[in-house]
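assembly run, all chains below
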Amino acid sequence: MIDAVTPAEGTAPAPAGRGLWSRYLRRPVGVAALAVFLLVVVAGLLAPLLAPHDPNFVDFALTQAPPDSSHWMGGDSAGRDILSRLLFGARTTLYGAAVACLTGIALGVPAGVAAGYFGGLTDRVFSWISDAVQSVPGMIVLLIVAAGTGADFTVLMVTVGAFMAPGYYRISRSRALAVRKEPYIDAARVAGLTHVKILHTHVLRAVHAPVIIQSALTAGIAMGMQTGLQFLGIGTASEANWGQMMNDGFRTMLTHPLILLWPSAALGITIAALAFMGSTLADLVSVRGEPAPRRRRSAEQAPEEATDRTGALVHPVEASALRIDNLRVSYRTPHGDKRVVRGVCLDVAPGEVLGIVGESGSGKSQTVFSALDLLPADGRATADGIWIGGQPVGDLSRAGRHALLGTRIGYVPQEPMSNLDPCYTVGHQLMEPLRAVHKLTRAQARERAREVLLRVGITDPDRVLACHPHQISGGMAQRVLIAGAVAGNPSLLVADEPTTALDVTVQAEVLELLRELQREYGMALVIVTHNFGVVADICDRVAVMKDGRVIETGAVEQIFAHPGDPYTAELIKASQDDTESRAELDAAWNKAGRTVRA
Amino acid sequence: MIRFTLRRLLSGAVLLVVVTSASFFLAHLAIGDPTPGLLGDSATPAQRAALREQLGLDRPLMTQFWDWLSHAVRGDFGTSWRNFQPVSDQIELRVPVTLSIVVAATLLAAVVGLVVGVATGLNPGGVLARVLKLASVVLFALPGFWVSLMLVMAFAIKLQWFPAVGYVPLSHSGTQWLRSITLPSIALALGAIVMIAEQLRNGFQEVNNQDFVRTLRARGLSARRVTVHVLRNASPAALTVLAVMFVGLLGGAIVVEIIFNLPGIGSLTQSASQIGDIPVLLGLTVVTVVFVVLVNFLLDLVLGWVNPKVREK
Amino acid sequence: MQRIWRATLVAVVALALAACTNAGASSGDGPVEKIRIGTLLDVTSWDPAQADIGFDGPYLSAVYDPLVALDEKSQPIPALATSWTYSPDRLTLTMRLRSGVTFTDGKSFDAAAAVANLNHLKAGVRSGQTYANVADVRRVDAHTIALRLKKKDDALLYNMGLGRSWMASPAAIKAKSLVARPVGSGPYTYDQGDSTPGSQYAFTRKPQHWDRRTYPFESVRVLPIADPTASFNAMLSGQLDVAYANAADTPHAKRNGWNIASKVATWVGIQFTDRTGGQLKPLGDVRVRRAINHAFDGAAILKSVGQGAGVATNQVFPAGDPAYDASLNDRYAFDLEKAKQLMAEAGYADGFRVTMPMSSIFQPWQPAVQQILGQIGIKVTWKNLSPADYQKNAATYPMFVAVVALDSNAAASVDGRIASQQWFNPNPSTEAFPELHGLLGKIGATTGKEQLAVIRRLNAEVTDQAWQDVWYQADNTYFSKKGITVTPITGMMFPTLRFLQRG
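ok done. output:
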């Protein structure tokens, strides 16, 4: 049985309900598809009024007749009016599709919701059954069922639906699973809501949109199956249905191609409408969504919003490791461009540690990604100038800029586990850039990888090299990532929230390590953080960002002593009040004191 | 790894037994007394009774079931009720035909789906991506036999590049075999190609947005090398679709085998179901489920290789 | 990526090369040496006792010789039996056998072999009916056998010639190995290595055969193609030289310059299984059966659903047969008013209800039947059956839409279509019709011209009694490429190889 690829699976639920439909109605393709589909439904419902003739009336003179004024589409092989049969056929065809969908929903959705919500044995049993159904050659079963029931249309469509149930099962299960993990469900449980109530209010709401998408696909498949079964000689001719009409046309297609054309067109258009409805809905439900419309020209033509430069450039160009002058970053969204960085200036010299501090959404990460040319595809950065190692990169080709990565620039990401490729060993991930970028031999690369692992404090490098990412701890993974960043001997190290995802006990160690490495290699270090504790621990200078602007820069001591902006003061206070990591911060303070004193 | 393998094999065996047992009862209950249809023309009640006795249909259903099962586990599926030839002989003759087109279609779907999926994944707004999207809707909307017929019209009748009907065994002639399975495999694969490509494109975009891809770029790896990483991470979902598709292709093979007149298990399924030849139908069910179980097993091994985390779960 | 492109390119080139070699079948001038035949069904069995007459002809006639063959007028002619004589009481048939014939396993054909074969055929589930009247077969001398009959059987030689007297090696019969592989003495050898069961059967002409002249083609391939469109496509693509055809494609075939041969093969209409009213009282009234006959416009149905391929008639004797009587065709002219009047006379002015079986094969006629019976007040409830079930169960309903094979032998038609129990005619109930019963008795007692006259009277009586409602006799149609002619034989759904000739 062909199983529909479910585009909604594995994507986060978007707010469903009325918002979804109003957004749907703003999509021209979706509206057109919906209109076509509704037209077919209405045509089927009103067939008795619309049809010019009795769909089953046989007029031998009409056999395979070409269209004329009273029979707009001509006659079929039995001498019946094709147009009337097409209209009445819509009923049967849609009825069959509805039966298949309802069967699939009735079998798949409750089981999927139960499996995802309760987990455990329920999940295992239902999942096994679902897998089993998917391994059954559905066509054989359909043929057996057809032989046994004299090809009863409803029974056949119920059978088709049963084979479509695993599709419904899987989407409902993954939806329910996702909802189950949401904190508000626990809250609801604590508040005394029953399972039934929770399922009703929360889970069903999350499940309904994917189920509708799946139904659009299932309905299309069921209609296709109807024609397939008719082709195999299974089904009835007494009631008009498109499958039977296509089969009739297929038998006479060489001599009377029109007989095949009409039902093919009707079926094709209806299934296509369903497919477009499904994909439009899927786009709306999925966070992945469609890439924003490519409007290269208009994006360039969009008037540059006049922005003031913010921040400060304190080093001469030639003495800077990184210099960013008036950086603007914007993202294309379906609703137009969204500006996230507005005129940022900053620089850092070799051997210096610069902290970029701000809350999430302040544009600090976008700033460093722009510097590294690692913005996502829909992001766009412009600047008056970016210099790396004193060289302007604006003149470099894409490849030329890319060549700086891993050689001149090292990058330490925020979340250690998600920044290692789960499919490859640590060794492979450390050695691949060394071999591909630095042209080391396999043995040399391995030696270098061991060396940096040892340097970042991993005592058994050979075991770690052979490990897959899921086999090592978060702290160790961050050490691996730092090792990867420095393995290429960069002169500039960019660390994006390097400690945020780590246990408090590990945070200080990692910062310590970064500091040591920075000194040892004489690198410039740019560290992005929201935590002034980190700044205090490691930075020489700091740039405070808010809403895509630098609101304050200066030496760490100066900023701590006299925050120039109330926002900075607030940030400092927030870091100190962070009760969760109170003890850790104290330790960090002490250490910072020591380091500063040292 | 061995435990993983054994567990998958055991689960496959259980599935096989459950599905075929269910099919046994379904077939017997649905088809009932097959003897009049088998004897055809002018069978007397006495002749029918004799045939029923000869076929062992006069025994209780459970006895028949145990008898069938105990023989089936030894690979003996009995004899066809139509021509009294061993079921396994007939299936053996026909399996290579269906496997040829289904495997060729799977490979075709995998290769073309991969190329198109990657190309559109790398350039999601490009022309190819739009073509793929349109093709997916068109192929979804058109019934399989329609597409097959158009292929025949164009490439067999107009251009005469490939035969319109028939199958030449591989042992007979390699090129002739290839020619005879080309159009059926393409007809079978078209829908699958689009599904694989869509799955890969989606997976590609999803993986592309993951953090480690940025980190790989930051290490200076070329776009090609990064693509390999992305592909490996996107492939499990596509492979799963491919495996599910394999089951679908076995079903789709019925229509394709009829249009191209191929003596495969699909056309045998159809003819056996029309005359109610239960031993043949059950044999076919077993064979098909075995294929499905094997493919799923292979899939698990490949998934374990692609992403080692799966293996340890 | 580059590697993938390269691999794709290689695959495409390989395919293109494969496509180029051998593209287009060889269509040289000169006499046709090789023919490829597309027929509807796969061979049922290589064992003549388990084979069907219908579509097995081309397969079995390649590898087996029959005792008796038919000529183009369906008259029995000598084959392995070189001559035969009936005893005066027509209860003993003595056959003289050909000598010097050997089977492919080296065994000679002789009287003992013929006796073994006939006993095997008599015991066969499918072939047994032909020999139902044969009491025993005995060897007279090395090249003579005698069949002793329980009662006179005027259809015996015809049925043997139709495809019930294929002679197989007695050793293979004894070993029961025929199911797997044929062992005969026919004009061709079965080339197993070159065949794909279910798809293609290859036969090579023997250098020596007693009837070599009748089989001019050096090699014969038979391809069973169940789907009519696939068969026509194969013909269009040049993969077939002869095909069992769909009459709807005839205009297309003409345009391609193919030979088109057709002859009536079946009757199409409504079969009554209950002419005494035991199951459905109205059908016991001849006026109701006549009303149904009047209600259907056979010619119109033939022209529309039947694509005009056939003869509009209400008889079960094939058009052109000596027993066929064209003057009877007007007996039930299409007349709805007359039909309604007859229904009223029979007391069914308001009609009645009937349940009829239906299956995909008969669907083309279903809407017409529903509508026309409805017009004379008969409300039909359809019971859907699978094609297999239809043959099993259709005759358990009082009436059903039928397509029944015809026979090109009057005696065989009388027996098969009227007098004896068949799947479509489980209750002949002839004794309930004294006039008809008497005629059947007379047929049993007469032969030759005298018998034919009685059969013609029987035909008239059957028609008058509206024994069934025949709309028309449908053709079987065969297309063949230039240089090959097919002579259809009513009684064979696909003719045996002797009816495929150059020309």
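Residues 264-476 of chain C form a domain with the Dipeptide-binding Protein; domain 3 fold (CATH 3.10.105.10).

Chain C touches chain B through 56 residues (CB under 8 Å).

not gonna interpret more than that til we talk
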